[in-house]
């Protein structure tokens, strides 16, 4: 059993999911329009061996242990494909100051803003960051999340970025969840490089990224292309450095203005472009041609009281895959509920239930470049799925503040909620 983080129960205590899961309704692709009612699935050695109607269960599996799905709906494990989960401290006092009328500039002069998170992250040791990040991850696990992306970007020097990424990797080991790490060194300009952004990009490209990639800590590379972040030219330098190292890229783009970041990302065959409130048709067309996923972040839209909607109709028109994520971060989306993001995407962005469920399964997997491992219940894949005590899959996007998860299977291990009983004593 893996050692637990202080104050957090060890997560690798679940029973093996091996056996036949029956008396359940399946959404193998996360799509409520293509259900398998009265379905069954078989798990062997932690992987999916078969999935289909219960009446068609092959005889070779008849003697395996049976796990009763109690009529639950079963989806692929949910995927949170954009988070900043590892950082020091929190910024609730700044939230209160903003509500009382303080401007961003006033908060920054008082030592707040991203600089305060950088300061807290640099000061925290790995054990502290691990404890704090675990407390944020646990609510997501409790909602059926089985894979998550975690970005760096609050260290902004080599030692602190390394610390964030090491903690992200450790979270996966402790909690039995697939972690995808993203290096976001080009997130903001650190105080010691004030007025010298190009020199900081030199550090990111020539020192930080090569070192962290060599240590196996980086799965993808991101940047913040925005007026308050980095220019398209500086972003392209980061992308070129990533591609030289064989790493895929993604981008924070078109959140506050349109700098052509999404088109830039598409030219580099980016996995995703994220936020996109100010995305135009040319950017949508470029993303469609490149197969770049649009990751929408309704939590940040809500928290910032934004009124400029992402171009949902254009994304639909051009067939751009849409993913949904929490964007968990201390400044603009302190959200620890992916289910709430489904509701927000429906209510704020007018997306359909089918679209948002795809957004946290098949399309979220594509945004991670992991569509062959995550996002579907299919033969040969690791057993990552979730059982929901609902009458209709639409309830996953309907309820606000209610979590209908009965059990989650992560990496072939069962993590059941209190009161959910599965049988595994042999044939029934």
What is the spatial order of strands in the main beta sheet?
5-6-7-8-9-10-11-12
The largest sheet is:
8 strands, parallel
**Helix percentage:** 25-40%
Q: What is the number of helical segments per DSSP (H or I, 4+ residues)?
A: 15
* Number of E-type strands: 15
Percent strand: 15-25%
- The gyration radius over C-alpha positions equals 21 Å
Q: Any low-confidence stretches, pLDDT <50, length ≥5?
A: 1-12
Averaged pLDDT: 94
- State the separation between the terminal residues, measured CA to CA: 30 Å
SS class: alpha/beta
Please state the overall shape, judged from the principal axes of the Cα atoms. Answer: globular
Order of helices and strands: EEEEEHHHHEHEHEHEHEHEHHEHHHEHEE
Brief write-up:
This protein is of the alpha/beta class and 428 residues long.
Structure commentary:
- The strands form two sheets. Strands 5-6-7-8-9-10-11-12 form an eight-stranded parallel β-sheet. A seven-stranded mixed β-sheet has the order 3-2-1-4-13-14-15, with no helix packed on it.
- It has 15 helices and 15 strands.
- Helix content is 34%, strand content 21%.
- The longest helix has 18 residues, at 158-175.
- It has helices spanning 92-99, 104-109, 114-123, 126-141, 158-175, 197-214, 232-244, 261-267, 281-290, 298-303, 312-317, 338-349, 353-359, 362-367, 395-398, and strands at residues 19-26, 36-44, 47-53, 66-76, 78-80, 145-151, 178-186, 220-225, 250-253, 272-275, 293-296, 322-324, 385-388, 405-410, 413-416.
């Amino acid at each position: 059993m893996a050692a637990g983080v202080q104050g957090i129960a060890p997560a690798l205590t679940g029973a093996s999911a091996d056996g036949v899961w029956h008396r359940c309704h399946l959404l193998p692709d996360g799509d409520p329009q293509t259900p398998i009612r009265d379905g069954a699935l078989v798990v062997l050695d932690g992987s999916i061996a078969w999935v289909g109607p219960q009446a068609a269960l092959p005889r070779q599996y008849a003697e395996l242990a049976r796990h009763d799905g109690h009529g639950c709906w079963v989806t692929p494990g949910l995927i949170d494909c954009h988070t900043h989960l590892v950082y020091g401290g929190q910024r609730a006092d700044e939230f209160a100051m903003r509500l009382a009328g303080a401007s961003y500039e006033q908060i920054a002069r008082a030592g707040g803003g991203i600089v305060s998170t950088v300061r807290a992250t640099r000061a925290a040791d790995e054990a502290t960051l691990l404890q704090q990040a675990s407390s944020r991850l646990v609510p997501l696990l409790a909602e059926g999340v089985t894979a998550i992306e975690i970005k760096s970007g609050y260290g902004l020097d080599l030692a602190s970025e390394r610390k964030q990424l090491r903690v992200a990797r450790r979270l996966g080991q402790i909690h039995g969840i697939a972690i995808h790490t993203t290096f976001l060194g080009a997130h903001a300009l650190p105080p010691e490089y004030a007025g010298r952004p190009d020199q900081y990009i030199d550090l990111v490209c020539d020192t930080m990224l090569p070192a962290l990639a060599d240590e196996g800590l980086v799965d993808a590379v991101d940047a913040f292309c925005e007026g308050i972040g980095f220019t398209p030219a500086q972003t392209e330098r980061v992308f070129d450095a990533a591609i030289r190292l064989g790493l895929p890229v993604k981008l924070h783009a078109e959140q506050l203005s349109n700098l052509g970041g999404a088109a830039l990302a598409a030219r580099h065959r980016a996995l995703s472009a994220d936020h996109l409130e100010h995305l135009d048709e040319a950017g949508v067309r470029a993303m469609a041609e490149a197969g770049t996923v649009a990751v929408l972040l309704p939590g940040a839209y809500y928290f910032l009281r934004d009124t400029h909607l992402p171009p949902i109709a254009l994304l639909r028109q051009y067939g751009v895959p849409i993913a949904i994520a929490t964007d968990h971060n201390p400044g603009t989306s302190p959200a620890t509920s992916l289910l709430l993001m489904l509701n927000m995407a429906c209510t704020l962005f007018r997306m359909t239930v089918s679209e948002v469920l795809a957004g946290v399964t098949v399309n979220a997997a594509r945004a991670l470049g992991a569509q062959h491992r995550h996002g579907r219940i299919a033969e040969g894949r690791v057993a990552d799925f979730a059982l929901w005590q609902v009458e209709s899959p639409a309830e996953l996007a309907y309820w606000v503040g209610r979590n209908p998860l009965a059990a989650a299977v992560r990496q072939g291990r069962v993590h059941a909620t209190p009161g959910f009983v599965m049988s595994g004593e042999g044939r029934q």
